[in-house]
Design brief:
Length: 175
C-alpha cells in the first residue's frame, strides 16, 4: 500500500511538472499586448518624485543612432516637446524641451510589434502626439532625462529610423 501511494504521488508530481512546463511555454506565445492603463499608473507613481512634470505635444523627432538587428533593433531619438501644461518644474506653457529617448523598433507583424506598440503608449515619441512626461535634470549631461511618460491616445504616426532623418508634427504620414 505504501509503495502504491509513493507511485501515485510521484506520478502526480510529474504530471504537475509537465503542466507547468507546457503552461510556461504556451503562455508567453499566447500573450497579448500590455494594457496601456499600466503605463498611466507607472507615470503617476514616477511623477511624484520627478523634478519636471508636464503635458506635452511632440513637435519634432530626429533619429540620432540605431543599434542592433532584427528583433533587437532600436533607435535613439531626440524629441522636441512643446509644453502644453506644466504641472511641476521650471518650464512654462509653449516652452520647448529637448530629450533623448531610446525606442525598440517593430520587428515584423503580430508579436514582433508588441514592444514598439508599448513604447508608443509609454512615452510620447511620435510627431504630433499629446502625452504626459516626468523628467529629471541630469547635471553631468546638462539635459533632462526620461523617468516616465504616458500617452492616452496614440496617433500611429511614423518615427524616423534612419540616422539624421527628422519628422515634424503635421508632416504627411510616412510609410
Amino acid at each position: 500500500m505504501k509503495a502504491m501511494f509513493l507511485r501515485h504521488r510521484s506520478t502526480g508530481l510529474l504530471s504537475a511538472l509537465a503542466i507547468c512546463c507546457v503552461v510556461g511555454v504556451v503562455l508567453p506565445l499566447a500573450a497579448g499586448p500590455i494594457n496601456p492603463a499600466v503605463f498611466k499608473d507607472q507615470f503617476e507613481a514616477a511623477a511624484k518624485n520627478a523634478e519636471f512634470v508636464a503635458k506635452v505635444r511632440v513637435v519634432a523627432v530626429t533619429c540620432t543612432a540605431t543599434t542592433g538587428e532584427g528583433k533587437s533593433k532600436s533607435a535613439d531619438l531626440q524629441l522636441s516637446l512643446q509644453i502644453l501644461e506644466s504641472q511641476k518644474g521650471p518650464a512654462k506653457k509653449n516652452d520647448v524641451v529637448v530629450v533623448s529617448h531610446k525606442v525598440i523598433l517593430p520587428a515584423g507583424p503580430g508579436p514582433g510589434t508588441y514592444g514598439y506598440m508599448a513604447e508608443v503608449r509609454k512615452f510620447p515619441i511620435t510627431p504630433g502626439v499629446h502625452g504626459s512626461v516626468a523628467l529629471r535634470w541630469d547635471k553631468d549631461a546638462r539635459c533632462y532625462t526620461v523617468i516616465a511618460g504616458w500617452v492616452p491616445e496614440a496617433n500611429n504616426a511614423a518615427i524616423p529610423t534612419e540616422v539624421g532623418k527628422t519628422y515634424v508634427a503635421g508632416d504627411p504620414v510616412k510609410k
